[in-house]
Amino acid sequence: MADHFPLIADASANQIKEIPSGDNLNLSNNGIVGVGTINADTFVKSGGTSSQYLMADGSTTNILNTITDRALLVDEKPNATHGGGSQNNWGGGYGPRHINTIKYNPGNMVSLNGVAPNGQPDPTGFQINQAGDYIIDWSCPFYNVGYVQTALKHVGFGTIVLPVSPSHPGYIWEILDFGTTEWCGNQSQVRSKGSVKVSVAATMTPSVYILQYQCSTATATWGLGLGQSFNSYVNGALPVNYFSEVSVSKIS
C-alpha cells in the first residue's frame, strides 16, 4: 500500500496540488473520522505543558512526574554477617523479615516501626506518615530454604508500636498481597519479590506495615540470605551486607 499526500487548493496560484513539505493542514471546525492507524513523531496538545501526554479520553497526564517522592528501606547487617535463620513455617503462618535502616527518605514520608519480643529496639516494620497513594515494592533473599514466599501485611494505623495488640483501635492485621513463590535448594539463593498499590487516608496516618515470609525448610544462620566477608575497605570502612529491601514511591 502506497503513501499519498493530501491535495489542497492553492488560491494564490489557482492550482490543486499536493501539500508542500513543511506546511500545516488546517482543520479548524472540522474533524477526522474512520481513521485506522496514525503514525506520528510527536503529538502536541494546544496549551499543554512539558512532559504531558494526551490520553485516549482527551485528558492529559504527566507521566514523567508521576512519582513525587521515593524512599528506600533495607535490612542492613555488618560485614561477614548473614541474614539470619529461617523458620519452617510453610502453610502454618508467617515470620517477619527485618527492616532496620532507611537508605534515603527525602520527604520524610516513612519511618521505622518495631520492637522485638525482648523489648530491645529491632525494627521489623515501617510506617507511612503522609496521606496519599503509594506503590510499595519489596524484595527478600533466601538461601537453601526450599519453597518460599513473601507477603506485605498492613498492621494498622495510629500510634502503633510492634508487636501490636488486637485491642488497639487501629488494628487491621491484613495481608495486602503476596510476593513471588520461589524455590532454592542445593546451596542456591533466590529472591521473592512483590508490589502493591496502597491508599493512605489522612485519618489513617501513620499506617504501619510489616514484611513477612513463609518457607518449607528451616535453615540456620543464612536461611534469610547469604552474606559475605569483604576484606577491601571502601572510604575507610568494610562494606556491609543488604538483605530485605522495600521501596516506597508516592504517586499522588
How many domains comprise the coordinates?
A: 1
Looking at the overall shape, the CATH architecture is Sandwich
Low-pLDDT parts are 116-121
What is the CATH first-level class name?
Answer: Mainly Beta
Shape: elongated
**Strand fraction band?**
35-45%
Q: Which structural class should the secondary elements be placed in?
A: mainly beta
Overall average pLDDT? 84
Main beta-sheet annotation: 7 strands, antiparallel
Radius of gyration: 27 Å
Q: How many beta-strand elements?
A: 16
Oligomer state of the chains in this structure = single chain
Q: Report the end-to-end length measured between terminal Cα atoms.
A: 46 Å
| Count of alpha and pi helical runs | 0
Helix content: under 10%
Task: Say what the CATH topology is.
Answer: Jelly Rolls
Helix-strand pattern: EEEEEEEEEEEEEEEE
